[in-house]
Amino acid sequence: MAHTRRRIKSGIPLESTDRELFERVTAQGVKASCFFNNKGGVGKTTLVANLAAELALNFNARVLVVDGDPQCNLTQYVLEEEEWLEIYKNTNPVSVFSVIRPLSLGKGYGSSLPIRQSKAFGFDLIIGDPRLALQEDLLAQDWRDAKAGGMRGIRTTFVFADVVKKAKELNYDFVFFDMGPSLGAINRSILLAMDFFVVPMAIDIFSIWAIRNIGSTVGVWQRELKTGISLSEDPSEIASSDQSRKLRFVGYVTQQHKERGGVEPDPDAVASEEGEATRKRIVQAYQDISRGFPDEVKQYLKDFYDADQIDPHLGDIRHLGSLAPRSQSQHVPMINVSGTGSYTQLRKQAREIYRGIAVRYLENVGAS
Ligand SMILES: Nc1ncnc2c1ncn2[C@@H]1O[C@H](COP(=O)(O)OP(=O)(O)OP(=O)(O)O)[C@@H](O)[C@H]1O
Ligand SMILES: [Mg+2]
Predict the structure, then answer these.
(1) Residue 13 included in any domain
(2) Which of 11, 126, 168, 252 would staple 66 via disulfide (CB 3.0–4.6 Å)?
(3) pLDDT in the model for residue 312
(4) Does 69 sit in the ligand 1 pocket, CB within 6 Å?
């Protein structure tokens, strides 16, 4: 596949140790990772797009990103406005829906992947589709069949595993899935097709609940699928990679809320002593929550990683103020937003943050 990448100045030269790490990890084969949290608005899409861009533009990785969220936020972010307007004017755009549609028509898996490119982000893309939501029922129904050993159900459940298999044949270094915020049937199929998952978290109590939900729910799904495969008429029809896949946890990234970081005082909150006391209590509460993350992760995700081998904390994303919306309106990654003044400083921070997360991601994937 031809790659036309915009030449960029990353601002931070790649250390030779980072380059070696990258070479070592990619030599181990293609990795499929999803970025998942059933809580909405925790920064999943922003992280997928910007981490994939960091790997593609600065490490020269070949990355395929799949927009598995019917909201299509990622697609809207990484394609130029004119481009996606043109695509979605068509009532039947070629998208992630095209991957799953043949199955619902009883035709098996599609023959090829509908791949486009995001030039500004440097990666390839399977665009999202609001019609993906219509397939939630099919996947839910076929899941019941899969658990009872039905081949049709198992095949449908592995629809995204087939996407990953095809992507691996195309020699990508990484395949990333962005997902909507739910523990529904689409996300089950995605999670069951992955080698790895990353959990983006907001610093709030609901993110702790999300960690608990993910650990227990994914564990149950894996056991149910295993039972289904063992009950199936002919397990040899199921690819051995699908039978032996082991989903592993790479780590979590925390996303800071502007008003809760305690870095910049809120002028309204410090107007009175009472306001100041309230602000301090809130900041303290959030610090307590984030201090609790490592133990929660260790307890609830212990089956998915080796706590002696890896530190699952991949990094903290501070609130980058207006850099985030500007990156959306320019349809470029945060590391390449154009602008002077305060943008110079914010862009520099973004470059440090995403380089740091990319390196930690590579370290943990390499050690798993
Ligand atoms: N580092 C950041 N600094 C400032 N704003 C950010 C940052 N990261 C994300 N945001 C903003 O937070 C909002 C939510 O982010 P995002 O869409 O990535 O979350 P999400 O978890 O994918 O949401 P959903 O659950 O709806 O898919 C967006 O408006 C985004 O611009
Ligand atoms: Mg999202």
Answers:
(1) no
(2) 126
(3) 97
(4) yes
Give the count of domains, the chain.
Answer: 1
pLDDT (tens digit per residue) in 65-92: 999 999 999 999 999 999 999 999 998 9
Residue 271: the pLDDT is 62
Is any atom of ligand 1 closer than 6 Å to the C-beta of 259?
A: no
Structural domain of 291:
27-367
**Chain centroid to CA 300: how far?**
20
Q: Is the dihedral of CA 171, 82, 8, 6 positive or negative?
A: positive
Q: Are 181 and 37 in contact (CB under 8 A)?
A: yes
Total number of residues shown for the chain: 368
CATH number at residue 246: 3.40.50.300
Q: Assign 255 to helix, strand or coil.
A: strand
Domain contains 10: no
**Among all ligands shown, which has an atom nearest to the Cα of 354?**
1
Best of 38, 39, 46, 337 for a ligand 1 pocket test (most atoms within 8 Å of beta carbon): 46
Ligand 1 atom with the smallest distance to the CA of 317 is 1
The pLDDT-based confidence of 9 (bands split at 50, 70, 90) is low
Work out the mean pLDDT of the chain and round it to a whole number.
91
Reply yes or no on whether the pLDDT at 186 is more than 90: yes
Q: What is the mean pLDDT of residues 160-177?
A: 95
CB 207 within 8 A of CB 301: no
Residue with tokens 């020269």: 60
Secondary structure tally for the chain: helices H, strands E: 14, 8
Q: Whose CA is nearest to atom 29 of ligand 1?
A: 325
Tokens encoding 327: 């990156």
Q: How many CB atoms lie within 10 A of CB 305?
A: 21
The answer to whether position 16 is within a domain reads no
pLDDT in tens, 203-216: 888 888 889 999 89
